[in-house]
Amino acid sequence: MQVNDDILFGLDETSARSVNGVRVSQYLLSCVGGSGGGGDRLENFRLTLRIVKEWARVHGLYSNVLGFLGGVNWAILVCWVCKENPNAKPSMLLNAFFRTFANWSWPHPVLLSKQQTRPMKGVTSHPIWDPVNNFRDSKHLMPIITPCYPSMNSSYNVGDPQLRRIQDELRRATKISNDVCFGRKTWGDLFKGNDFFRQHANYLQVDISSSNEDEFREWFGLCEARMRILIAGLENPSYGTQAYPFAKFFTRKEDEEDGGEGKYVSSFFIAIRFAEYAQKIDLGPLVMDYLQIVNSWEKRTATMDLKMNLVLQENLPSFAFEVECAEKENEANDTDSTATETPTKSIGEQEEEKTIEQATPALTKKKLDDSATPSIFISPLKRAKIG
């Protein structure tokens, strides 16, 4: 499958990579549509992708800015599975998706087609992802390559902590999907409360706050954009630490009448595991790079604050478990699907898709609360300290 390169005429590298967002989407839709049964295959792709993305959100894996995978990354992975299984239904595609990428040999790249090394005649040549001749490309941990020229690794942000969490959750999802195939579980189990806040003993809670709403958004944006530096700092084998980030911000307004300070607060959690040989560890040096960057921000005002506290599992705030409550309420109340069934499908196929859609929180009429998805604020701070 090829996307016409005519649009690249006269474009510099920045512009060419910018328009590739649309070109990649066109390629994916054309790739899964194919010829013969294209309509059904396209719908199977879309439904599978929606389910995978919702699964990623529930389990704290959906955020490109935090070093996890974003929309285009998940779309390319799902497209790869659909391409390998062109006649499979969504239930089979889901099982194949989790099984395939739980066992993928990273950093072996995911490629939808052979890389195009040169553009068509008349189009300016641009650098492509090349781990053989480019040292930086060779260090990428989870290469998911865009199919259009100039190709690039769409997941260059992924670090060791994020890759470890993605692999862990893929293995759990594989077990669940296998159990579904044998009738031991249902697809709803794929979205039942994640166990992240029950899997670890220690968590670093990062609270981003401001008493001014506009300044909070600005401050939050900065802190979120630099959060990968904090995550990378906490992953330090020489100190005996491993980081397990959860890609979700818990944003709320603390009202003064409820004992709060009238601030807008967004909390982020990173689980930390310590090596057996580690007796006493000072996290100060591990978070220093992040603190220096946010504390020296020139636009920071007196209302902007950031605090870090090491919290034991039993002392985690109750709002960290609110997603579980929302999912349980969803499961109890949701009974119909919002997806429109196509009359050309058999009753068995319609029932299969209906079952999967009803089990997926974001596809039901009663959707998860906005707090269950990654925040879209853009951000600022004041004193940054570790409690």
Describe the structure in brief.
This protein has 387 residues and is α+β, with helices and mostly antiparallel strands. The protein has helices at 13-33, 38-58, 71-84, 90-102, 135-138, 160-181, 196-199, 213-225, 227-234, 284-295, 322-333, 347-359; strands spanning 202-210, 241-245, 250-253, 264-274, 305-312, 384-386. Strands 1, 2, 3, 4, 5 and 6 form a six-stranded mixed beta sheet that branches.
What does this entry look like structurally?
The protein has 387 residues and is an alpha+beta fold. It contains twelve helices and six strands. Strands 1, 2, 3, 4, 5 and 6 form a six-stranded mixed beta sheet that branches. α3 (71-84) crosses α4 (90-102) and α9 runs antiparallel to α10. It is globular. The relative contact order is 0.14.
Name the beta content range. Answer: 5-15%
Structural class: alpha+beta
String of helices and strands: HHHHHHHEHHEEEHEHHE
Task: Count every beta strand, where a strand is a DSSP E run of 2 or more residues.
Answer: 6
Radius of gyration: 22 Å
Task: Please summarize the sheet with the most strands.
Answer: 6 strands, mixed
Q: What's the overall geometry? A: globular
Count of discrete alpha- or pi-helical segments spanning 4 or more residues: 12
Average of pLDDT:
84
Q: Give helix % range.
A: 40-55%
Report the span from N to C terminus.
Answer: 55 Å
Which residues sit in consecutive blocks of at least 5 with pLDDT less than 50?
A: 325-347, 364-387
